[in-house]
């Protein structure tokens, strides 16, 4: 597996990306779209520096996204075909599809699901019919996430209960302790708010990922509502934990949504826009400052941008401009990057 630079495949030296890589995390996005288009929805592949044991953070995209990125040469895969039986003689009819499937079979064993909105789960659900009992995937999440998947998705009505056939395993993770998700990575989940829908309060998740070898950390949010808007404050708890890690120089990257340019709170529906994201980051900064440190080493990776077919200005441009202007006004020293589908991000 090789990284890309500005959308072009780059073949790295074997030494740099060996099993002794000094980088604690590799992030590769299969989808950053927050809707309403059904393509390119939320799915981020996370691993340590070797990119061998991979966890999919959410599952809005998977096999078709892998195949598309392989075909566009934005993803170069090294896979072992010797142990796989193909139907019939010769090579598969669709070699790109076969490569995507083999890569998923060999490398991506776990889906870490933040919440059950369709744009975060639908590829994981549809692709589950291909997983099979010989190589099941594990779907991991907080208790309310797993309960919802069992009751409302894998219920033999919306989709077959493939856990009963051994195609998938469900694993509930506890917000009080770290749980191993690969041989090198563990996760500590946090419940977060995701607005309300017709009187029903929605919950999502944030995940604090630890590289157990390097003792470095990365935090990834699912959809999330600002504490200032929510009925109860939950983000503050993860910011307090993150502040200690930032102060110790153990956490440098935050993956978080910023779905739209600034709009009224009534139209947010449980999401961030620039003013709320900067406000939340200022809360984080206050905790870091209390520890006598700064946030000048923090990079905020922006995802889940929503689109509209009649827009004349790219929302990405507006969001970045607003984030940078707001952060400058309050002297917030973080760096903002829009996560690009099909590009690698490596960091410690």
From TrEMBL:
InterPro entries named in the record: Pdiesterase2, RibonucZ/Hydroxyglut_hydro
Membrane spanning residue stretches: none
CDD domains: class_II_PDE_MBL-fold
Segments of this protein annotated with the region Disordered: 1-20
Keywords (A to Z) from UniProt: cAMP, Hydrolase
UniProt keyword Hydrolase present: yes
Residues making up the signal peptide according to the UniProt record: none
MF term (GO), any: 3',5'-cyclic-GMP phosphodiesterase activity
GO annotation terms (biological process): cAMP catabolic process; negative regulation of glucose mediated signaling pathway
Family statement drawn from the similarity comment of this UniProt entry: Belongs to the cyclic nucleotide phosphodiesterase class-II family.
PANTHER family, A to Z: 3',5'-CYCLIC-NUCLEOTIDE PHOSPHODIESTERASE 1
Protein name: Dual-specifity cAMP/cGMP phosphodiesterase Cgs2
Organism of provenance: Schizosaccharomyces osmophilus
Taxonomic lineage of the native organism: Eukaryota, Fungi, Dikarya, Ascomycota, Taphrinomycotina
